Amino acid sequence: MWLALAKTFPNGKIHDHYSTTQQLGKALRAARKQLGLTQSQLALAAGVGLRFIVDLEAGKPTLRLENSLRVIEALGGEISLNGLPAPTGGDDHGA
């Protein structure tokens, strides 16, 4: 499974693929810097703690997915999953 982070910049949309938490963290750090945000400013915008941003950018693999998604949203990005079967409908919680 590959994780794709789509980020819209003034010059258009950029799609990159990441297969490790370190690659994703590096990309999020680059996006934050391109937007001119400090780690503290991004933490405030995403509603997470500064330590979370530091760990996320360092590629720590045990972070909460919900908070990671909040940071990506605060940076103007989105997540898409490639290579997975299409949903079959219905709720498969626990199935």
From TrEMBL:
InterPro entries: Cro/C1-type_HTH, Lambda_DNA-bd_dom_sf, Tscrpt_reg_HipB-like. Transmembrane segments: none annotated. PROSITE patterns: HTH_CROC1. One of its GO terms (molecular function) is DNA binding. Residues 28-84 form the HTH cro/C1-type domain. This is Helix-turn-helix transcriptional regulator.
